[in-house]
Amino acid sequence: MSEDRNNQNPDIIDDDLYEEFEDEELFELLEEERRKPKPEKKGPVFPKWAFWLIAIMMFINVIAIIPKTFSLPAVDFLFKSAQLSTNSDINTYQRSIVVVESGKSKGTGFSISEDGYIITNHHVIDNGEKISLAYPEEGLFQGEVVAEFESVDLALLKARRVDGKKVEDLPSLPLAEETSFKEREHVHFIGNPLRFTGIANEGEVIGYTRLDDWEEDVLMLDAPIYHGNSGSPVINMEGEVIAVVFATIKREQHGKVGLAIPISYYHHKIENLEESQTPDQ
């Protein structure tokens, strides 16, 4: 959470998107869903037995008899992800999404090279604990921190095989050279929200915003972002990563929105790092 540095209407940022789903947020999300205007229904009506099944699961979930997994928003994004995954491009993107675990924290990362370089949020791995990485098809790897860019909440990791063998032929996502977009441009993002993995969803880019405790502007997304989405790639219609999800915030004009770090910030940090490591001639 951000500090009240100016003591006047500070930005309250939820950047703990890797933490477990709490009961209070569950109720808040349910109330939010209940208050939403209901669109005119077309086609087959949602069966009553399915509604009551979800309601029963929710009741059991709240009293903690089973793990906290099911919620109405969760059902929504599972259906959406299943729908989007029928798109061959989305299905290909999902192969590059990595589960990043460090101690008790769990978030998202995405592969950017065949030899296992991965981008995630700095706050996902800043606890000093051992890092584990899991690709959807290639399995488990050990994670090594290559670079940390705390000022823009990014980190570069390297996947290492447990058996010490060379890492190669891993799926990866291309990065846009710069963060460019049109207002309300349609984008996809893929991550590991709640206790699920590789969940695809969609949204729109609202534009830039400035946070109280950031020196750089970040992107606002009109998109359903939950705990576990930290480090999710924001992918444009050309299949390039233009930003990295890191938090949510409430804005008077837009309500609850997602926040994402422009990928151009990553490029700038890497360039500065390489320059600083180049020996003087």
UniProtKB/TrEMBL annotation:
InterPro entries, per the entry: Peptidase_S1_PA (IPR009003), Peptidase_S1C (IPR001940)
Segments traversing the membrane: 49-70
The keyword Secreted belongs to this UniProt entry's keyword annotation: no
An individual GO BP term: proteolysis
Gene3D superfamilies, alphabetized: 2.40.10.120
Swiss-Prot/TrEMBL keywords: Hydrolase, Membrane, Protease, Serine protease, Transmembrane, Transmembrane helix
An MF annotation (GO) of this entry: serine-type endopeptidase activity
Name of the protein described by the UniProt record: Trypsin-like serine protease
Organism: Pontibacillus yanchengensis
Lineage, broadest ranks: Bacteria, Bacillati, Bacillota, Bacilli, Bacillales
